[in-house]
Amino acid sequence: MSKSDKPARIETPQAIRGTQDIFGADAEAFAHVVETFERIRRLYRFRRVEMPVFEKTTVFSRSLGETTDVVSKEMYSFEDRGGESLTLRPEFTAGLSRAYITNGWQQYAPVKLATHGPLFRYERPQKGRYRQFHQLDAEVIGAAEPTADVELLVMADQLLKELGIADGVTLQLNTLGDGESREAWRAALIDYFRAHKDALSEDSQDRLERNPLRILDSKDPRDKPFTADAPKIDDYLSAEAQDFFAKVTGGLDAAGVSWVRAPALVRGLDYYRHTAFEFVTDRLGAQGTVLGGGRYDGLMESLGGAPTPAVGWAAGVERLAMLVADAGQVAEDRTEVTVVVEDDRALTAGMGHVAALRRGGLSAELIASGSPRKRFDKAVKSNTRAILALGWGDEGLTTRLRNVDGDVARIEALIA
RNA sequence: GCGACUGUAGCUCAGUUGGUUAGAGCGCCGGUUUGUGGUACCGGAGGUCGAGGGUUCGAACCCCUUCAGUCGCCCCA
Known about the structure:
Elements: H1 24-43, E1 47-48, E2 54-56, H2 57-64, H3 69-73, E3 77-79, E4 85-88, H4 93-102, E5 111-120, E6 132-141, H5 146-162, E7 169-175, H6 179-195, H7 202-210, H8 224-228, H9 239-255, E8 260-261, E9 273-281, E10 289-295, H10 299-302, E11 310-316, H11 317-326, E12 335-341, H12 347-359, E13 364-367, H13 372-381, E14 384-393, E15 396-403, H14 408-415
Parallel strand pairs: 1-5, 7-8, 12-13, 12-14
Antiparallel strand pairs: 2-4, 3-4, 5-6, 6-11, 7-9, 9-10, 10-11, 14-15
The protein binds one RNA strand through residues 9, 14-15, 17, 60, 63-64, 68-71, 73-75, 90-91, 93-94, 121, 123-127, 129, 203, 211, 214, 219, 267-269, 285-287, 289, 292, 314, 370-371, 373-374, 376-377, 379-381, 389, 400, 402.
């Protein structure tokens, strides 16, 4: 009678905020993206690497700079039993750079690396943005030549094209120049914006001290009039930096990859040099960047390694998968043969047939539960190419093959 | 961290100014019908109305808190 008579309710633990359980069509799209990437990276002879999901926190904090919000608020960090601070990887680049140093991969330089897997950032989830998300990643470490930048960009372009989502995606390209160019431009930007400080948005006034380059891509309309007339990187590029960028754009043109100049495209971190790029779509709301990267010649030193030129990109699998799904690029997943046991006396025959079909390379499903009368209908409703109905008559087992658009001869040979 | 919107059955959603025992479609399970078949009909299971607290004679509905989702801001390595 009373409520206490009921067994205690066991509360189901909830999934962690910002994580996803990917299933069905979404999972198929996800797999399609990863499989396409694996195929492409082989074409470009990038070597597959498997990396740890966590590292010492210093791997990321040194490369990012201790002071940024990114380190203090947006990493999944924790202490292990020895009191050491560890962090779930928020990106691939820092871990790959660490591995390059600690494993002596200099011997393979220039080395072309590709990997993919889960990454973690402590952020508020929104469209195309999760706390555990997944990226494809390609890096060329130990190559100072613009041809490396070009190769990566051409590979990225081919990936998007083969995924069938290149329409509506544009490659935005910029150069940040070499170290000197970059610093000169940065100083000029600070001078310029400081002169207009009072008219800038609150956010941008704050950025002025923290991250002045970011004012350039502010979304606040109050900043727009000033960003248009802000100093341009082109006026501060050294001859070497100009030459480098010209070789990148020339390579892209030669390879038939279209691009647009995006002078406001910047990177917040100091180790970025020269090429910066993003493939951007207008179809994913505020999270329009589908693939992005650049040259990070300054990173290796911040991890205690020898100065090493490097360039790479990463792409969000979830965002790519969304575009792939929207574009209808994932083939329907159909069963080749559905074996229906319409009479339980035919069950052993049914189990034998599905096994034979599967060993013969045809995908097969067995329907042998629920009301026998409704099993055939269940098969009809499923998305199958052929139905093998097994019944039981006066003479024992009866077999009927109803073809939709399967390979009849092959099926009959396998169940003979 | 901030803001807006949303949480009712496995799914998609109704639910009147706050008023008896919270509904539908789809799906699922069972039965009947049909019988080279995707039909139709009948029945059934399935709900702490996201959670906690408050107001009230009475709350899915009003208020507060909290959790989660969605979209955006900040950030974006």
